[in-house]
């Protein structure tokens, strides 16, 4: 730790038992209700976007104007922060406090290693008991901050770090589905977010909700499936209507030109016959009419699909109208989600990484713009989309639907983001996937790239008829097999994707020729970037020519 940090003084200053209480953790919490009331209600977010609703009309992230607020929240300056955090949390708080005290006061390196390991399990048991309280607006801020940033001990900040975290935006002003852990658990507790999928069978049991039932859960699953169909049908309908409008405009323009007849010179008021250009318009008009006939047939089909999905949705809404509107998830299910989150956290860190769960300046080495705050992640995702425009796109019936995944920001010292689910199993069409990003990585850009690469791989694999032969996964799998490489296939892909985005996009050739060819076709750069790279190197110019050859042969 830093030389100016005195662990003994810290423990003496922050030990809850120093106030003479008979129960050292039975401490009345401070009233933060005015600061926290309503901040987690997505209906009150001052934006048109909602984290929990997929809007297929949104084509990109709104620019992030500010990463930090001008003024500090002051939450980490509260001298009672530690007491409020531990207050009323029973044995889990006592155990964590005891281990933190021993860890911070120990001088023996071996003892410190032992206490560090013991703190890991104690910490996760402690936050597991806190998770259900994220649904209560009056929950004190220290209890939220330990889930959000893993800040148990404000004295482990440097002055600069405390100022930075105190000025981070608390509310989700963007409305994007990028959530801190306290927001994630609050959404789970209120039913806005389903439990993350596991391999342990059904996500929820019929007895899991107070005020709910097996029938209600079944209807909610049907509604989730139908919403995917409804959104997809409406997207196709809107796209086809736009196409019809464009063709009708072209048709009207050509008919207007066809009906223009200037006077014969010297023979007025008689008009001239069609010119050669006008005679050519006849064929173009016929082409547009045939196109409109085809569009009309497709519109009939899409309208029927949309109407059917709409009627099913209305029927489900009617059946659910008499059921409890507020879904309260059972305590055991919330704690089950925390167990899942712990697995996500382990995966972001890796087997050889630093699994210490508590924020400490000893391990935190990020800059303000490289810490995994929500605004920084949005900026990074914006950069990723500028190079890989289809990174969040899911194609269904030739419709490109942009669907940003739920992104959980986990306060770990990990370096690699992960994809937990490519999409909801009940709605493969328009549901959000789930990825997790470590908040304190060495390189936030790499952590985000790893997560979206994982997402890309899993979506492509799930969508392929035969993932070992079709599309992106098939081509990549066959190349790996031809090289007789051992190890995890997805790990190779993620590493190559990172090189593709950070090196190849700038013209630095780091991939093999075969992998570059695969990525150029299945993870294409924007055309403007392709053209620029083609001018800079014959390697990319050759790939551009292959694009043209495929287009000419209709094989692209």
Based on the model shown, name its key terms:
two-stranded antiparallel sheet; mainly alpha; about 50% helix; single chain; 18 helices; 4-stranded mixed beta sheet; disordered N terminus; about 5% strand
Plain-language structure description:
There is one protein chain. The protein has helices spanning 7-14, 33-36, 81-86, 90-105, 109-130, 141-149, 159-166, 181-189, 214-258, 276-320, 331-349, 374-387, 444-463, 471-482, 489-502, 513-522, 527-536, 538-552, and strands spanning 178-180, 209-210, 328-329, 393-396, 399-402, 406-410, 418-421, 434-438. The chain is mainly α and 556 residues long. The chain has a four-stranded mixed beta sheet with strand order 1-6-8-7, sandwiched between helices. Helix 12 crosses helix 13 (444-463) and helix 17 crosses helix 18. The longest helix is centred in the middle third of the chain and has 45 residues, at 214-258. The chain is elongated. The model is unreliable at 1-47 and 201-212 (pLDDT under 50).
């Amino acid at each position: 730790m830093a030389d100016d940090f005195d662990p003994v003084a810290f423990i003496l200053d922050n030990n809850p038992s120093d106030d003479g209480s008979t129960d050292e953790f039975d401490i009345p919490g401070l009233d933060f209700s005015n600061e926290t009331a309503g901040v987690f209600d997505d209906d009150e977010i001052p934006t048109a976007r909602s984290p929990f609703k997929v809007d297929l009309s949104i084509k990109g992230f709104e620019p992030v104007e500010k990463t930090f607020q001008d003024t500090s929240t002051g939450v980490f300056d509260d001298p009672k922060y530690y007491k409020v955090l531990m207050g009323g949390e029973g044995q889990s708080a006592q155990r964590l406090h005891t281990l933190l005290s021993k860890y911070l006061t120990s001088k023996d390196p071996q003892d410190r290693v032992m206490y560090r390991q013991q703190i890991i399990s104690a910490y996760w048991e402690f936050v597991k008991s806190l998770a259900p309280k994220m649904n209560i607006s009056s929950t004190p801020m220290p209890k939220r901050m330990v889930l959000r940033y893993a800040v148990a001990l404000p004295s482990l900040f440097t002055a600069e770090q405390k100022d930075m975290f105190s000025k981070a935006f608390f509310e989700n002003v963007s409305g994007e589905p990028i959530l801190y852990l306290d927001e994630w658990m609050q959404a789970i507790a209120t039913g806005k977010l389903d439990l993350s999928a596991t391999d342990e069978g059904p996500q929820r049991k019929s007895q899991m909700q107070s005020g709910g039932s097996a029938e209600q859960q079944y209807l909610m699953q049907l509604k989730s499936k139908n919403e995917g169909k409804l959104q997809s049908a409406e997207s196709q309908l809107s796209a086809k209507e736009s196409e019809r409008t464009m063709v009708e405009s072209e048709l009207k323009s050509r008919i207007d030109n066809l009906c223009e007849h200037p006077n014969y010179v010297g023979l007025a008021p008689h008009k001239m016959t069609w010119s050669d250009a006008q005679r050519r318009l006849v064929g173009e008009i016929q082409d547009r009419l045939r196109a409109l006939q085809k569009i009309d047939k497709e519109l009939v089909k899409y309208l029927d699909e949309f109407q059917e999905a709409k009627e099913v949705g209305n029927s489900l809404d009617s059946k659910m109208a008499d059921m409890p509107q507020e879904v309260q998830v059972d305590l055991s299910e919330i704690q089950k989600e925390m167990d899942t989150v712990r697995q996500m956290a382990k995966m972001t860190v890796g087997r050889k990484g630093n699994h210490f769960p508590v924020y400490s300046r000893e391990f935190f080495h990020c800059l303000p713009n490289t810490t995994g705050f929500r605004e920084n992640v949005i900026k990074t995702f914006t950069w990723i989309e500028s190079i890989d425009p289809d990174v969040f796109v899911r194609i269904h019936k030739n419709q490109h639907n942009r669907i940003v995944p739920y992104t959980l920001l986990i306060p770990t010292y990990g370096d690699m983001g992960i994809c937990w689910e490519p999409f909801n199993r009940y709605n493969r069409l328009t549901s959000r996937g789930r990825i997790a990003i470590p908040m304190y990585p060495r390189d936030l850009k790499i952590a985000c790239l790893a997560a979206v690469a994982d997402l890309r791989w899993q979506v492509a694999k799930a969508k392929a008829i035969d993932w070992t032969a079709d599309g992106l996964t098939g081509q990549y799998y066959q190349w790996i097999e031809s090289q007789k490489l051992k190890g995890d296939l997805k790990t190779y892909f993620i590493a190559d994707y990172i090189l593709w985005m950070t090196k190849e996009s700038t013209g630095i050739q780091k991939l093999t020729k075969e992998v570059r060819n695969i990525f150029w076709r299945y993870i294409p750069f924007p055309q403007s970037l392709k053209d620029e790279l083609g001018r800079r190197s014959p390697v990319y110019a050759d790939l551009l020519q292959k694009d043209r050859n495929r287009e000419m042969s209709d094989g692209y």
